ComGF family competence protein (Paenalkalicoccus suaedae), 121 residues
Amino acid sequence: MLFIPLTLALLSTYSKATSNQVTTHQESVLFIDQLEKEVRESDTYVLRPREIEMTKNGQRIRYQLYQSRIRRQVNQAGHEIVLQNVDSIAYSLHPKGITIFIQSGTYSASYLLLTKVYFDS
């Protein structure tokens, strides 16, 4: 019974957005989830204006803005598209991780990737 009101509230929120914005949001969330997992598993990472590069098990993994897409490369090879229709992306350090800002048409969002686990004492 509790799921019905929450689901309706969620659907009504998305019905106010265009279908392109909803799709962009869903794709962005999947991208962020994948990136957050990879950053947490990495040994090191480096932020650049439009890309993030990390080292994981001796491999260099890079997510970069390429034309209007975010692509993933391993050891400077490959062309795996992880997000499309991106106008801009920006990475910045945050005390608890990395902040990512994505702009795609009229859609824009900021995400916080938690790179460390914090406990309140």
